[in-house]
């Protein structure tokens, strides 16, 4: 049913659950593949560069975080591609989803804390509203 | 990519986004430039001229397109005592000298030396900066009425709540306009920017600082210029890395150092105070869609246009609004993730961070904090690396082997020598140093000392497993001490 899946992740343990569901979904269709997308926003750039020294080491660290997801999907025998994008998380995910040819988007429901969600709004909520394809939100 | 092509993309690759972002940044720069001037103890024009000059110059010669440089809090905080003791003209001279030092840094490609500053020191630097910007606002609250407090609260409320509903206009600008309007309409009688100093609606003019050109003058400004140059480059290169990361592109750090230097030299000649790259404004610029050099140029030009056209409105901005904006700036500057992770990072790193912050808050000098942090990190590093492991194995009844593992240098030799048993009842001792490295003459001296102590007891000593560099060092230094009769 869904051949090209897009899995949006924030690298958190919670979004690992979304990855498991994406694998379940991919297993339903012969030859399905998953693209893993991770968005780096401005404040994350600042704290990551501070913590890891420069942009290159920060990028390397992010790939390490994502390798957990990548290994999990590959381990289930599903082809996976990893994309790291930069910008506002919700907007970037929405644009990336709508500009490319995906059949379904899988997102976790929660990464931000309650306070952050109150001020910034929920990323998954915004994404649900604006993408043009079916969305699976994993609670 | 050819040079002209590169030039074209850097300038005109993103015209619409750059112009829009530049306008947003200019609006956000004005309150900050005024507030930082007030921190430094000079007229608001000094910070505004600096922001204009630095932005425009950096747009052309900076190494990181899309980065915003202007008058900053980090630099303003370093100038306070110079301005208080000697006045504005000395500050302008110090600004020019700062530029010269930074230019030399760039020419001699010293930007790579910044890697010697540990990350925990950089995090401490940023956090200390945030704390100092915050505490610099407290003076505006002294002896004020509840009207002023509520205006500050209103400013902060608008800044943080408005983005929930619209991101089309910068919330700080709306906050300033609303609070200024309220203060003017209610005739609230609160202190305004106009009360803090003069604001002239004229373009900056070229003038060399009016100071005696003597050795004594140089000695007054040099320490300030050195601190300004280092702190400026530190924040600029850090910001460049952050912009690199946000835009997923690379930048020329040495070119940026030279650019910062030239920008400060020119700024000093046009009546502006020393500045550097701004983390907050650069993030705003990139988030608003700015990528190229045009965004920086527009920010600087539009800032000056606004001051010339709206100077008489700007003086009516209440200090309460500015203080509110600065509190937001300090909250945004602080690296909150470092507090969340403080229990996760190694204890020595956390200590370095806290000591850096503590030193800055105590001395009000960011460069002293960085120095303290670097020295402490070096000490921790020496302690960590100076752990030498010596294990002994009895090979036969009369022969013992010592396996040495670790780095032998001045800090580790005492432990090294103490781990041998010189009163052993053996005929021969073999010291295996294949897992060790000798770094300096203390190490060679310690090896000699161990051999000599054993020999005094009539025990034969053999050293094996010296690596090439270590044995070279032994030959060079050890040979001499042997010859002199040890």
Plain-language structure description:
The complex is a heterodimer of chains A (about 140) and B (about 475). Chain A has a single domain (about 5-140), classed as HUPs (Rossmann fold, 3-Layer(aba) Sandwich). Chain A contains six helices and five strands. Chain A has helices at about 15-25, 40-50, 55-75, 90-100, 115-120, 125-130; strands at about 5-10, 35-40, 80-85, 105-110, 135-139. In chain A, strand 1 (about 5-10), helix 1 and strand 2 (about 35-40) form a beta-alpha-beta unit. In chain A, helix 2 packs across helix 3 (about 55-75) and helix 4 packs parallel to helix 6 (about 125-130). The longest helix of chain A is centred in the middle third of the chain and has 21 residues, at about 55-75. The model of chain A has no long low-confidence stretch (mean pLDDT about 85). Chain B folds into two domains: about 10-335, no CATH class; about 390-485, 2-Layer Sandwich (Transcription Regulator spoIIAA). In chain B, helix 18 (about 415-420) links the parallel strand 4 (about 400-410) and strand 5 (about 430-440). Chain B has about 475 residues and is of the alpha/beta class. The radius of gyration of chain B is 29 Å and the shape is elongated. Chain B has 20 helices and six strands. In chain B, helix 10 runs parallel beside helix 12 (about 280-285). Chain B has a four-stranded mixed β-sheet with strand order 3-4-5-6. Chain B has a two-stranded antiparallel ribbon with strand order 1-2.
